[in-house]
Amino acid sequence: MRLDNMLIAEGVAGPEKGGGVGAAANASAAAGAGDSAIEHSDYRAKLGQIRQIYHQELEKYEQACNEFTTHVMNLLREQSRTRPITPKEIERMVQIIHKKFSSIQMQLKQSTCEAVMILRSRFLDARRRRRNFSKQASEILNEYFYSNLSNPYPSEEEKEALARRCSITVNQVSNWFGNKRIRYKKNIGKAQEEANLYAAKKAAGEAGASPYSMSGTPGPMMSPPPGDESSMGGYGMPGMNGSGYSG
DNA sequence: CCCGATGATTCGGG
DNA sequence: CCCGAATCATCGGG
């Protein structure tokens, strides 16, 4: 009976229509980008389709069940002319039929659940439908990162400020820094170019009168910049096949 | 179409 | 909870 609960929770079963603001929306909106409304409208449309089909099928089953029941009843009535048939017997018959049909309904519920699950992962999983940040947002984030290379761990307040400036969520800022740190470390050589680039940009912006202590480079404690551009050909990228599941 | 870049999620550890 | 690491899934340029 868990299937019923789930279908109700997803808004497939339960209230025929109306708001139907399910638990679907807020379930995995963790770091979802700002405009989640658009994606959700698509999601809702598909969900509505599923629901429609579900109810359609359900009704069909019910109708078939009723038809079959009356059919059997008629047969029994005819038989009752040649042999005695107790009402108990009839009731038993009806119960058997209903049980059979409800098991069929279970199958329908299960496949509907499956469809909903697929739909959820297809639309609500933020890994899909990923959008790159704007160029400007990347600028801001990179600027902070390379200006604080020795300690690229923004506090909560700083994250909020950055999030506001970039028009993204705090979570996304955290994600960005997490990715940036690990990827910087993984590839110092290339990142160094970026570092120089942003350092130059910053220097241009400050035009000389900067309060930085000029005791050499700030020396990032993460790893010493080797400045070695060669020997960064290919690190093993395994197959990464795109296992296509139809959608 | 391939492949690197990139944002998001998952997992293990403190 | 945050971090690093691995991984996933999409984007975007060639």
UniProtKB/TrEMBL annotation:
Residues 124-187 form the Homeobox domain. Residues 1-125 form the PBC domain. Keywords: DNA-binding, Homeobox, Nucleus. One of its GO terms (cellular component) is nucleus. Pfam families: Homeobox_KN (PF05920), PBC (PF03792). CDD domains: homeodomain (cd00086). The keyword DNA-binding applies. GO terms for molecular function: cis-regulatory region sequence-specific DNA binding; DNA-binding transcription factor activity, RNA polymerase II-specific. Residues 208-247 are annotated as: Disordered. One of its GO terms (biological process) is eye development. Residues 208-220 have a biased composition (Low complexity). It is found in: Nucleus. PROSITE patterns: HOMEOBOX_1, HOMEOBOX_2, PBC. Residues 233-247 have a biased composition (Gly residues). Coiled coil: none annotated. InterPro entries: HD, Homeobox_CS, Homeodomain-like_sf, KN_HD, PBX_PBC_dom, TALE_homeobox. Belongs to the TALE/PBX homeobox family. This is Homeobox protein extradenticle isoform X4. It comes from Hyalella azteca. The lineage of its organism: Eukaryota, Metazoa, Ecdysozoa, Arthropoda, Crustacea. The gene is LOC108668569.
